[in-house]
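Q: I'm building a small set of examples for a reading group on sequence design. Run inverse folding on the following structure and report the sequence directly after it, with nothing in between.
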């Protein structure tokens, strides 16, 4: 595991489900930076906030298919909320 004091930034990106070669019915997410960040990634960001309480830079990456600016701002707000939710859980557990 990476020591928490070494983590300074996390990268969020959307993707799409693709099949796994050789595994019928199996799928995985391809990080293509073209789609909205999926719900499971925000759940991981909550956990990141719980485990890594220090300052973090959160990078929301898009390389194309740019949504309206209001949607991008909403994704950023959701990222902030997710990170804070994890930090609140850490504080509650310590209390």
């Amino acid at each position: 595991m990476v020591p928490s004091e070494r983590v300074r930034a996390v990268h969020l990106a959307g993707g799409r489900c693709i099949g796994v070669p050789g595994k019928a019915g199996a799928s995985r997410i391809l990080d293509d930076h073209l789609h909205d960040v999926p719900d499971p990634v925000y759940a991981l960001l909550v956990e990141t906030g719980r485990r890594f309480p220090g300052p973090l830079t959160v990078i929301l990456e898009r390389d194309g298919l740019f949504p309206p600016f209001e949607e991008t701002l909403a994704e950023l707000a959701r990222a902030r909320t997710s990170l804070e939710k994890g930090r609140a859980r850490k504080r509650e557990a310590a209390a």
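The chain has a mean pLDDT of 91.
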